[in-house]
Amino acid sequence: MFFLRNAWLMPAIPFVSFLVILFFGRRLPRKGSEIGIASVGASFVFAVISAGAWIARPHSGHLREAVERNITWWKSGHVTIRAGTHIDGLSVMMVFVVTFISLLVHIYSTSYMHGDRRYTHFFAILSLFTAAMLLLVLSSETLELLVGWEGVGLCSFLLIGHWWEEQENSDAALKAFLTTRTGDIGMLVGISILFFAAGQTFNIAHLNALALNGSIRHGLLLAGAGAPSSRCTPGCPTPWPAPRRCRRSSTPPPWWSPAST
Fold it and tell me: What is the tens place of the pLDDT at every residue in 133-185?
């Protein structure tokens, strides 16, 4: 139960790694890559143990009760906005996938990006990318989910434009940024409508309960779901594991999938 109640540590660890690499990475023996790998490895172990704890949880029929832990982020009148973690079967599966793929990407990138002039910067952003994705899949509130969503978009922009001196890379990063921001309009509208339809709450568990009994629909959120696909459009470099992998090789590693963005 400890691991399910403290799932916030999974995004917190790579976020701390981002800060350490950013400020001290150049002074470290491996220029910060060892910190990135260690932090994502720790989050992966945490995810595996959390998955085991979730499977071992008692359940009624085929359902297990979600585990939530929240703090009050902001309050005004009768509107309370919280931040926290929401753990259910889907989120447990996603944190395992995110941390596992991220760990492979970190390890692969030590060789792929070896000798790069911004090697330390790359691993700092990679750690932030991992933290943003984990925040996205663990959020207990749709507003918090939006923060993770935008963090992923920002990191994609930074990784795609890693070699910004070349015009082609700079254009690709700008293209991805503008396309995803356009797609995010649907997400913002959907979150706003759901907030009022659910009685002025961003709580995902409450929204799920209302959706299950047919009180509201989640359909409008799908308008924003197409935004990440723009990061893998033809001619646009994909952010993992390197900003210009498609330039050096037309065949990605066997474990690579556009869904990982």
Answer: 999 999 999 999 999 989 998 998 899 888 888 888 888 888 888 888 887 88
| Angle formed by the axes of helices 9-24 and 89-112, nearest 10° | 20
Alpha carbons 97 and 56: distance in angstroms, whole number = 19
**237: DSSP letter:** -
CA 223 to chain centre: 19
Q: What does the angle CA 11 – CA 14 – CA 15 come to, to the nearest 5 degrees? A: 80
> Would you list the DSSP string of 55-75?
HHS--BTTB---EEEEEEEEE
Token pair listed for 36:
């990135």
Let me know how long the chain is.
261
**pTM, rounded to two decimals:** 0.83
Rg (CA), the chain: 19
